[in-house]
Amino acid sequence: MKQLNLSDKRDATNHSFKSRIALPVNMLLLLVGTVMSVSGLYIQLVYHVGKKAADTALFENLATLHTWAGLIFVPVVMLHLLLHEKWYRAVIKKRLFRKNRVTWLLTLFLLFSVLFGIIPWLISPYNPALHFRFMCIEIHDKTAVVLLLFMIGHTLKRKKKLFVRKGKK
């Protein structure tokens, strides 16, 4: 890992900015990710695709909450990934995929879950491609469950790094 050269003001400023923004970004990810996961799991388990919702108002509220949480989650995840851009570049450049397999799988499941969560929005429920829309929702549901497990492991493994500010040395 590259040592921070304090004489280089640009690197020092960038490092300082990353240090200040990392904790709020991680906390927001945890909060929004929890809301999104709980609402999504509830929708999936109680109002599975194809079943008629018994309490339509509750379903609509949960779906709206899940959607808004997802809309907040995606840009915050993108910011989180940008904060770790150097790590991704190093892993790609040095071909360290096997050593970092879990983080790469987390990233792939995140991409699949987001992609298959967005595609149904682009297909009207009244479109002849309704079967494809439901298939995308099913893929989103299944990848999101696996993603949730990876995210829990990722967070627990890094809880000290993610949430504890280091004192000045």
Q: What attributes does this structure have?
A:
6 helices, Fumarate Reductase Cytochrome B subunit, 169 residues, mainly alpha
How is this structure best described in words?
The protein is an all-alpha fold. The chain has one domain: Transmembrane di-heme cytochromes, Chain C (Fumarate Reductase Cytochrome B subunit), CATH 1.20.950.20. The protein has helices spanning 9-46, 56-83, 85-94, 101-122, 130-157, 159-163. Helix 1 (9-46) packs antiparallel against helix 2 (56-83). The longest helix is centred in the N-terminal third of the chain and has 38 residues, at 9-46. The two termini are 19 Å apart. 9% of the residues are buried. The model is unreliable at 1-10 (pLDDT under 50).
Mean pLDDT: 80
How many individual β-strands? 0
Question: What is the name of the CATH architecture?
Answer: Up-down Bundle
Order of helices and strands: HHHHHH
User: Could you name the CATH homologous superfamily?
Assistant: Transmembrane di-heme cytochromes, Chain C
Biggest sheet, in brief? none
Tell me, briefly, the overall form: globular
Tell me the span between the first and last alpha carbons. Answer: 19 Å
Q: How much of the residues is beta strand, in percent?
A: under 5%
Secondary structural class: mainly alpha
CATH domain class: Mainly Alpha
* Total helical elements: 6
Low-confidence stretches: 1-10
- CATH topology, anyone? Fumarate Reductase Cytochrome B subunit
Our Rg estimate from Cα atoms comes to 19 Å
